[in-house]
Specification:
This protein is of the alpha+beta class and about 290 residues long. It has helices at about 15-25, 35-40, 80-85, 85-90, 90-95, 105-110, 110-120, 125-130, 150, 225-235, 240-255, 265-280, and strands at about 5-10, 30, 50-55, 65, 70-75, 135-140, 145-150, 155, 160, 165-175, 180-185, 195-205, 210-215, 225. The chain has 3 domains: about 5-55, Uridine Diphospho-n-acetylenolpyruvylglucosamine Reductase, domain 2 (2-Layer Sandwich), CATH 3.30.43; about 60-175, Uridine Diphospho-n-acetylenolpyruvylglucosamine Reductase, domain 3 (2-Layer Sandwich), CATH 3.30.465; about 180-280, Enolase-like, domain 1 (2-Layer Sandwich), CATH 3.30.390.50. The structure holds flavin-adenine dinucleotide (FAD).
């Protein structure tokens, strides 16, 4: 199958991109890395009249650190999460998650913003935004606004991005030397979408956990923050008892659906095992 014929626009500013969307009367799709959109076009799951390529918009590029906050432009590619020194130092969860996202060819083209805009419930980067306490910067013709990850992921493939709006960048508190991070997932084959996955960003106070954020994916229609498990660990030293308490609390944090491939009970069990692995990965002195 081939994509339906479409017109192509390559704006060089956000204002031009919004004007192109308005001119198409909404029958348009933005494209970043094209790694999800192009297959959808080829299968005619989407057939817009106009494709608006965001690649020429300078404000959507680059990674910068200012006043304790890291700004990652939406056009930053998956592969850059592995190599960019600011991401490796201050957003270690993205660097740890990147090798699990698809395959090298896709990571060379796919963008972090494209993944966060699409919000596939089985994707790694959207859940890491939740674990990092990120804010998404969204542009509309009226200006830009920031939305916290907790409010951004709304339902299956539904985010706070409205029709015609553009995800410009992700902002997150820069992790420092007091932070420890862990990422893992369970997939049938390396590079496949995960059956269950998750990431943890914690701040340590000596051997104890001062604060902790745990986000899981592939356990529901949106990434899920495991608040019960977080509460079970806060202020405690990581040991067999605190890990077991967190695993027990996790049961109340997630409500996986049954699907054709994986029954809910199995996903629940895998999430519990995964949480134990993640916590044992954290570099906190016993
Ligand atoms: C074989 C295969 C395996 C894959 N495996 C994984 C995997 O394991 N994990 C994973 O997370 N992903 C996986 N992907 C998806 C891949 O990571 C995509 O690159 C990513 O999800 C989308 O990023 P993109 O830049 O390619 O977005 P595009 O394909 O360009 O766009 C995706 C959607 O988001 C919209 N969009 C894009 N950018 C913006 C923006 N800045 N503002 C508003 N809307 C925007 C587009 O209109 C489109 O609807 C896989 C893809 C393939 C083909």
């Amino acid at each position: 199958m081939k994509a339906r014929a479409f017109a192509y626009a390559r704006p060089s500013s956000l204002a031009e991109a919004h004007a192109a969307f308005a001119a198409a009367e909404g029958d348009a799709s933005y494209i970043s890395g094209g790694q999800s959109l192009v297959p959808a076009l080829a299968m005619r799951l989407q057939a817009p009249q106009v494709i608006i390529d965001l690649a020429g918009i300078a404000e959507m590029r680059g990674v910068a650190l200012a006043e304790g906050t890291l700004r990652i432009g939406a056009l930053t590619r998956h592969a850059e999460a592995l190599t960019h020194p600011l991401i490796r130092a201050h957003a270690p969860l993205l660097a740890k998650a990147a090798p699990f996202v698809a395959h090298p060819a896709i990571r060379n083209r796919g963008t972090i913003g494209g993944s966060v805009a699409l919000a596939d419930p089985a994707s790694e980067f959207p859940a890491m935004m939740l674990a990092m306490g990120a804010e998404m910067e969204i542009s509309s013709p009226e200006g830009s606004r920031r939305v916290a990850a907790e409010d951004y992921f709304q339902d299956l493939y539904q985010t706070a991005i409205g029709p015609g709006e553009i995800l410009m960048a992700m902002h997150m508190p820069a992790a420092g030397t007091a932070h420890v991070a862990a990422f893992d997932e369970m997939a049938r084959r390396r590079g496949d979408y995960a059956m269950v996955g998750g990431g943890i960003l914690a701040e340590r106070n000596g051997a104890a956990i001062a604060s902790i954020r745990i986000a899981l994916f592939s356990v529901g229609p949106t990434p899920v923050r495991a608040r019960g498990a977080e509460a079970a660990l806060s202020g405690r030293v990581l040991d067999a008892q605190s890990i077991a308490d967190a695993q027990n609390a996790l049961d109340g944090d997630i409500d996986p659906l049954d699907d054709a491939e994986i029954p809910a009970a199995m996903r629940r069990h895998l999430a519990r095992v995964l949480l134990g692995r993640l916590l044992r990965q954290l570099e906190i002195a016993p």
